[in-house]
Design brief:
Elements (H helix, E strand, L loop, with lengths): L7 E6 L2 E6 L10 H16 L5 E6 L14 H4 L9 H22 L5 E5 L2 E3 L1 H6 L4 E5 L3 E3 L13 H4 L6 H10 L2 E3 H7 L4 E3 L2 H16 L3 H33 L3 H12 L38 E3 L9 H15 L6 E8 L2 E12 L12 E2 L6 E2 L4 H14 L26 H5 L21 H9 L18 H13 L3 H10 L8 E2 L13 E3 L5 H11 L3 H8 L2 H5 L7 E3 L1 H12 L3 E2 L2 E2 L3 H7 L4 E5 L7 E4 L4 E2 L15 E5 L3 E6 L4 E7 L1 E3 L6 H13 L7
Parallel strand pairs: 2-3, 3-4, 4-6, 5-7, 6-9, 16-26
Antiparallel strand pairs: 1-2, 7-8, 10-12, 11-12, 11-25, 12-13, 14-17, 15-17, 18-19, 20-21, 21-22, 22-23, 23-24, 24-25
Helix pairs in contact: 1-3, 3-9, 11-22, 14-15
GO molecular function, one term: isomerase activity
Pathway: Lipid metabolism; fatty acid beta-oxidation
Keywords: Fatty acid metabolism, Isomerase, Lipid metabolism
Length: 701
């Protein structure tokens, strides 16, 4: 097997494979990668003729904590939305069936499987071990079918397969109470075959049995397993279909919301049995229009601004179709203003804006003064800043200020605690530093420009996993780390380096981190739009970015945020300037006679270092990564379909800037609306797909 996985490692020796769960969730919790990868893993093992038995175990102190609730929050969120009806229930039903394929892949594998369980085996962990042929446990193992405590009916296999393993009364006791049982009780009721002294002894026993099986004739072994499985196959399949349908139909409730919210808050849940969870706007949020939408003007042309465009070498009709897709997106009412600028082979072929910079937010009064947006109106572009920062980092590395493989603690001496001393600059740049979320007390934002304070707070971070193990988007921690590394190596602020080396020589007006005091009134505000997020997604947002959009966006409009330097999230720019910045990179690091880095450096920065995978910190959106840059792909990319050469970065929520060398494109797309829930999000995707469809890749003669 040549593949590498985020949720499992595979080792094969002497015809026995060992599949080890590695998370990346705490306690090997089962997140998006697990449910996607496990079918791949077992399909590959089943097809490998050199593998005659498989042992499944968990890394660290536990087998598995089960479902990674924070990472999988997007699966449940639509069900907890107010008035969730057919579409979210249908989508949830399809998702359950997809996830069931993971445990089905284990159960249907022709090769015999043995689980070696130690520590906790909860929920999804029990689903998994119920799908194997034999279960061994260490004396410290504990088991729980805990789904009922989350107001969920276990639907990944335990209720379908355990009736053929356990006495009916024992199963009902475990499933209805959600209580924990120890290894001795598990052995007594038949959940496990045998109990051993510790994890090492358990794993050794599992391998001994696997080796014994592997010594037998493979065809006979397959035959025995097939005949035994045949007795339960139809009953299991029917049960799995039924529980998926049952949960899709009846799961939405206030109890589901309470169960998951209590899990996030680490408190006992208070169940009421009430149906249909409702949601309200957070305390302190101004009154909103219905559904949190803007008042879309009847005359779109009256609120459209046109910049200079050159259609001499492109089909004007194609540009108009792209703009029609932009207008259609605007009409959804989630964005007070939208700017779009596209360069094609260096020429500006589209530079337009639609909507209002001020006065037409959902919280504005109907008679508020409305000021139309222009193509020169600057906005905060949030995480698109990371593309700007990554450019500066690669430029400094090329010039010898540091190597990407230097350890962070060489520049931030406090960054050695809790196992962080092996973290490299590359780990930070590629979102694999192990600190995707801030830990500990919230830092004092008024001290963001205090380098000593920042270094101390960074040193206090506790990694969730070892650096380099997995990639999880570091939304908030990335910027302070990059700022302090650059400060330590140059004794200059990244804002000053960016201005001196790139922006000023090329005549940029904006596109730096924050703005000067006198420019604050010129920056158009961003606005939370749409209905507030359901509690589980709101909790995930608070963990990832410090709050929901309805809670965070008002702060980002304040001078304190817009004046400081936050390399991860407070670039202020226009769509035209973002497009022009990406044009530098599309051209290999040079524009208008100003070279900022070598073409080889750009190529290295946008070479894939992480293949397409869902990311729990970005709402499970599948992403490919270069070194600091998001990469496009053929199907799921952030820059439209069929754009594998594209690279750039997204920003909260629907901001995007990218270059696509195959098409000769550099694009800036800015909007001032930050939807909580956006039922028309597909219009944003459709716009990016329209760009890639209307401007095809260059033909190679």
């Amino acid at each position: 097997m040549g593949e590498t996985y985020e949720s499992v490692t595979v080792e094969i020796k002497d015809q026995v494979a060992q599949a080890t769960l590695i998370g990346p969730g705490k306690g090997n919790a089962m997140g998006p990668a697990f449910w996607s990868e496990l079918p791949e893993v077992f399909a590959a093992l089943d097809a490998d003729r050199d593998v005659r038995a498989i042992v499944i175990t968990g890394s660290g102190k536990n087998f598995s904590y089960g479902l990674d609730v924070p990472a999988m929050g997007g699966t449940f969120a639509p069900l907890m939305a107010e008035g969730a009806l057919a579409r979210p229930r249908t989508d949830f039903h399809a998702e359950v069936l997809r996830m069931q394929k993971a445990t089905n892949a284990v159960a249907d594998c022709r090769t015999p499987t043995i689980a070696s369980v130690h520590g906790w085996c909860i929920g999804g962990g029990v689903d998994l071990i119920s799908a194997v042929d034999m279960r061994y446990a260490s004396a410290d193992a504990k088991f729980s079918i805990r789904e009922v405590k989350l107001a969920i009916v276990a639907d990944m296999g335990s209720l379908a397969r355990l009736p053929m393993i356990l006495n009916d009364g024992h199963l009902r006791e475990l499933a209805l109470t959600g209580r924990d049982i120890d290894a001795a009780r598990a052995e007594k009721i038949g959940l496990v075959n045998q109990v051993f002294e510790d994890a090492d002894a358990t794993l050794a026993a599992a391998h001994a049995t696997a080796t014994e099986i592997a010594a037998n004739p493979p065809l006979a072994v397959y035959g025995v397993k097939d005949v035994l499985d045949q007795q339960r196959a139809s009953a299991v399949a029917e049960n799995l279909r039924y529980v998926a349908a049952w949960n899709a139909a009846f799961l939405p409730s206030k109890d589901l919301t309470e169960g998951i919210s209590a899990t996030f808050a680490k408190r006992p849940p208070q169940f009421t049995g009430e149906q249909a969870a409702a949601s309200t706007y957070p305390r302190g949020v101004a009154s909103m229009t219905e559904d949190g939408r803007i008042r879309v003007p009847a005359d779109l042309d009256a609120v459209t601004a046109l910049g200079a465009e050159d259609h001499s070498e492109i089909d004007s009709a194609a540009i108009e179709r792209i703009w029609q897709a932009t207008r259609y997106w605007y009409q959804a009412g989630m964005h007070p203003a939208i700017q779009l600028c596209i360069r094609h082979n260096g020429r500006v072929v589209l530079n337009r804006a639609i909507g209002h910079g001020w006065g037409n937010a959902p919280s504005d009064a109907p008679d508020a003064e409305k000021i139309p947006v222009s193509t020169d109106t600057p906005f905060c572009t949030y995480s698109s800043a990371k593309a700007i920062t990554a450019t500066v980092v690669h430029m400094l590395a090329e010039r010898g200020h540091f190597s990407l493989d230097d350890r962070v603690c060489e520049y931030i001496p406090s960054y050695t605690s809790h196992g962080k001393d092996h973290t490299t600059i590359r780990h930070v740049l590629t979102h694999s530093a192990g600190v995707p979320f801030p830990t500990g007390p919230r830092p004092d934002v008024t001290r963001a420009d205090d380098h000593d304070y920042a270094a101390r707070k960074l040193g206090e971070l506790r990694p969730l996993y070892p650096p380099g193990l997995v990639h999880i988007y570091h939304a908030l921690t990335w910027g302070p780390l990059m700022r302090e590394i650059i400060w330590a190596t140059t004794r200059k602020e990244i804002r000053d380096i960016l201005a001196t080396e790139i922006l000023d020589p090329l005549g940029f007006r904006w596109t730096n981190f924050g703005v000067a005091e006198e420019d604050l009134p010129l920056v158009a505000p961003s606005h939370a739009t749409g209905r507030p997020l359901p509690p589980v997604i709101a909790a995930a947002f608070r963990k990832a970015i410090g709050g929901t959009v309805h809670e965070v966006i008002p702060y980002t409009n304040k001078p304190l945020f817009l004046r400081t330097i936050i390399p991860s999230s407070n670039t202020v720019s226009t769509a035209n300037e973002l497009s022009r910045f990406m044009e530098i990179l599309r051209r290999g690091g040079e524009l208008d006679g100003v070279r900022i880095m070598a073409p080889e450096t750009v190529r290295s920065a946008v070479t894939e270092c992480r293949r397409l995978r869902p990311d729990s910190a970005t709402g499970l959106a599948p992403l490919r990564w270069g070194t600091g840059f998001m990469l496009g792909s053929n199907r799921f990319g952030p820059f439209g379909r069929n754009a594998p050469a594209a690279f750039g970065h997204l920003g909260l929520v629907n901001i995007a800037t990218w270059a696509d060398p195959d098409r000769g494109l550099s694009v800036g797309l800015i909007n001032s609306g930050k939807p909580g829930r956006d039922p028309d999000a597909k219009r944003y995707v459709a716009l990016k797909n329209a760009i890639t469809a209307e401007i095809p890749p260059k033909t190679v003669e």
